[in-house]
Design brief:
It is a single chain. The protein is α/β, with parallel strands linked by helices. 40% of the residues lie in helices and 17% in strands. The chain contains 12 helices and 9 strands. It has helices spanning 41-57, 59-71, 80-86, 129-135, 158-172, 183-195, 210-221, 225-239, 243-246, 249-252, 274-281, 303-314; strands at residues 2-7, 91-97, 100-107, 112-116, 139-143, 175-181, 200-204, 260-265, 287-291. A 9-stranded mixed sheet has the order 1-9-8-7-6-4-5-3-2, sandwiched between helices. A hairpin with a 2-residue loop joins strand 2 and strand 3 (100-107). The longest helix is centred in the first third of the chain and has 17 residues, at 41-57. It is globular.
């Protein structure tokens, strides 16, 4: 079930880059969370208790373990529908980026539309967009980031994902629009801003701010404040003191040059709808499309959602 498409009015005031994120529950079970998201609450508590104990005895190794846990996506294999779609691929090319690369699958001709999956997911999860966009005259591209789509699990970072998408866009050329799901929405916005690209942007079930997701990570595992502070200091040492801002969608969305649409389901239990409500207020003219009863992933396969996105992309 879908709800009407609306356009958000600009917020009368907006937070500066250096302010902390507003106190909104952006993520209930955000998809940027690493593998603990697949554990039941009791196992999460036991895991958190063990990490806290390790942190009291050996804080350095405990912080390193949390770092690796945070950055290693859960191991997910494409389902049968995704495998059937990949069997129809019309053209492929490989892009190397940093220490890894990706095989990009394509359908159709014309201006390109690049699809980006979320954390621990795979490109063909957005496969419902392929036939609709292809029939509208677009060349549709998707990929599996390293460590995703049934590949061997390995640590992978948001900045690496954004760089990979940046390199794919450069290689593909003539990219008219992009669609990013969940974490992919953030990585895609980062890539477009690095390129200063005017491409049309669609974010599906986005998470607004990385620091809020880290707080959710702490709460679900029951991490001690001291251990969380050590992890945040490690992030700052590696990514700089403004890491949470530089890798958050609420920093990048207002800087996009092209048109923007946010799609969110009212019953999303992984990324709260408050994410998109807040994000839309940061950028005048951002369109919103609401659905209901679909959750975080099934929204990608809803016929009306797919058609709304395709029509938005085709609208000049």
């Amino acid at each position: 079930m879908t709800i009407a498409l609306t356009s958000a009015a600009p917020s009368p005031t907006s937070a500066s880059d250096d302010e902390a994120p507003p106190p909104v529950a952006y993520a209930q079970q955000a998809s940027f969370l690493p593998s603990p998201s697949s554990l039941d609450r009791e196992r999460q508590r036991r895991l958190g208790h063990a990490v806290n104990l390790l942190g009291r005895l050996f804080p350095g190794p405990a912080t390193q373990w949390l770092w690796r846990l945070w950055f290693t996506p859960p191991h997910t294999h494409p389902n049968q529908r995704a495998r059937d779609l990949l069997a129809t691929v019309e053209h492929r090319f490989e892009v190397y980026s940093g220490e890894g690369g990706a095989l990009v699958h394509g359908w159709g001709n014309g201006p390109a539309v690049l699809l980006a999956h979320g954390w621990g997911a795979y490109g063909a999860q957005l496969g419902s967009f392929v036939p609709v966009l292809q029939s509208a005259g677009y060349r549709v591209l998707l990929l599996d980031a390293p460590g995703h789509g049934g590949q061997r699990p390995r640590p992978y970072r948001l900045d690496q994902y954004a760089q990979l998408l940046h390199d794919v866009i450069l290689h593909a050329g003539d990219v008219h629009a992009v669609i990013g799901h969940s974490l992919g929405a953030t990585a895609m916005a980062m890539a477009l801003n690095r390129l200063d690209s005017p491409a049309t942007y669609v974010g599906v079930a986005p998470t607004a701010n990385l620091k809020s997701v880290l707080r959710t990570f702490q709460q679900r595992l029951g991490l001690s404040p001291d251990l969380l502070a050590r992890l945040e200091r490690t992030f700052a040492d590696v990514f700089g003191p403004s890491w949470w801002r530089d890798y958050s969608l609420d920093h990048h969305l207002p800087r996009l040059r092209g048109r923007a649409l946010l799609v969110h389901d009212q019953d999303d239990s992984e990324a709260s709808p408050e994410n998109s409500r807040y994000l839309a207020r940061l950028r005048a003219g951002t369109a919103l499309h609401w659905s209901q009863g679909l959750g975080h992933n099934r929204v990608l396969h809803d016929r009306e959602v797919v058609q709304t996105v395709a029509e938005f992309i085709a609208r000049h």
